[in-house]
Amino acid sequence: MSSHDSGFFGKGIYVTPNSEYAAKYAFGHGGIGTNYDPHPHDPTLRAVLLCSVCVGLAYPVTREVDYGGRSSGNSDLYGHPLKSGCDAHLALVHANKGYQAVDHEYAQYGEVVVSQYAAVLPLAILWVKATA
After folding, report:
1. How far apart are alpha carbons 43 and 38 in whole angstroms?
2. What's the gap between Cα 20 and its chain centre?
3. Which stretches within the chain are classed as H helix?
4. pLDDT over threshold 90, residue 124
5. In the chain, N or C terminus with fewer CB closer than 10 Å?
């Protein structure tokens, strides 16, 4: 996470178990992410990191608890540190809701927020190419 990004679900390092979501983020598709620097020899490629993430106790982000009864807008966690006693936040999101938290039955992607880089172990760089 960059220093100028407060984070929808708290301050931290954002990862996803969904490769499609990670690739969309790398290309800046759908209003998420940024069109990151391309591969130096092939400008149609973007890097997606395959990582292992260590999570001890994750706080589940929910609309009913973390949005103060609002049906839209950012969660109450926006820009705040992770919940006390938790080393991660877990949010299920959907594009139709602006990548804000949704109930599990409507989930399109998952996001995990950890507070320390030490919790993320990069394993490989995957070079992905956009399709139509």
Report:
1. 5
2. 12
3. 19-27, 63-66
4. yes
5. C
